[in-house]
Amino acid sequence: MNIFDEANDLLDNFIFDHLNSYHQLRNYDYGIENRTNVSQISKYTSHRILYEFDIIEKLKKYDKKQKYTDEILWRIYWKGYLENYKSIWFEYINFKENSNNSYLISSAMNGKTGIDCFDTWIEELKENNYLHNHARMWFASIWIFTLGLPWQLGARLFMKHLLDGDAASNTLSWRWVAGMHTNKKPYLASKENINKYTVNRFRDTPISISSKINIIKHSQHQSNKLPVQRSFPNSNILIMFDNDMDIMNRSTLFNSYSKVYILRNIPINNEFELSENVSQFKRGLIDKINKLIPNSKVLKLTDLGINLSGHSIIDVIYPGIGHNLDSINKFANQNQIIINYIYREEDLKCWNYTNSGFYKFKTLFYRLNMI
Ligand SMILES: Cc1cc2nc3c(=O)[nH]c(=O)nc-3n(C[C@H](O)[C@H](O)[C@H](O)COP(=O)(O)OP(=O)(O)OC[C@H]3O[C@@H](n4cnc5c(N)ncnc54)[C@H](O)[C@@H]3O)c2cc1C
């Protein structure tokens, strides 16, 4: 069974057994032993082993698909929103912590806050590399509004440990909790809500919401121009990354090149280092994909230079705003190489409608029958 069959099996089993009750049960976090109320496919969607638009297509024939489809749309929306407001990403990665909070930060990162649920989630995050969506919301709210810590550090901690770590969903969800997204309403976790949706699994720890709600400053971001698709191929080399590995229906594309390089070990500084579990998971996925593309080779970015000698223009499957894009752009600048990005038609279409709120996007998505 290849990795695509494995991922589709997980999705199909979920659809068959639990799609009907998803809208009623999805908000419950019953703990790691009982996760059947959610699909846990995110480690595949974030690497595009499962392609969002294929999932929506697959769901069309089911009755109670609405809530689940909406969640997939959130993923598409966040990606598109970040494409429209790239400066949000740069502001996030350039954030430097200079407060004297190091003791509190270290207690939070090591799960030693004394807040039972929060400390449990830290352990779960580091060991299981997954958190339920509601736990992510409570966690981020406690991090920001109870502990008073910068959201950017929480977002980096998530990216380090989540198998599904995703530049857009993660950065923008943290901003949403902080009250920095379009509705400007912070998400405030409450003890009653946590108790209800965790079925009283945690010691009853009071969560105080601090006055720090008011002090999250953020700049206004102007939307940027969206990219357009140019013609390809422009060289005999194609480059791809771990966050778009949907290779189904792409054999014609791959066959247009003599070599497909899958880049791994993208160097990012200490503040954005991935945990060993996450790195290992990505290595495993890349190796599996490598075996499925006959003319592919796995390369480190540091070895790309020698493999590209003599090329002044290369084609790259667009990896979306995030570290992969930053790294390849930096490489191209340093080596005076022109990059031609290959976009997906569905992405480009959706991004035109993701520059304001989610509900507007969702309404238009259905009305315009975007796939
Ligand atoms: C603070 C915070 C950080 C997050 N960071 C990430 C991240 O780095 N990567 C990531 O993929 N998701 C992130 N999410 C969104 C969401 O929590 C996860 O996608 C979801 O929990 C994954 O579990 P699942 O596959 O069982 O979800 P299900 O409930 O089964 O949903 C199915 C799929 O829909 C999509 N989806 C569901 N909820 C959301 C959502 N709120 N936003 C975007 N897509 C969604 C995902 O692709 C998910 O796999 C974050 C949410 C919050 C509040």
TrEMBL record:
Required cofactor(s): FAD
Keyword Methyltransferase: no
GO terms, molecular function: deoxyribodipyrimidine photo-lyase activity; DNA binding; FAD binding
Domain Cryptochrome/DNA photolyase FAD-binding: start-end pairs: 71-188
Cofactor descriptive note: Binds 1 FAD per subunit.
UniProt KW keywords: FAD, Flavoprotein
Gene3D superfamilies registered for this protein in UniProt: 1.25.40.80, DNA Cyclobutane Dipyrimidine Photolyase, subunit A, domain 3
Keyword Flavoprotein: yes
Residues noted as binding FAD in the record, renumbered to the chain: Y22, Y68, D164, G165, D166
A Pfam family: FAD_binding_7
Record-given protein name: DNA photolyase
Species assigned in the record: Prochlorococcus marinus (strain NATL2A)
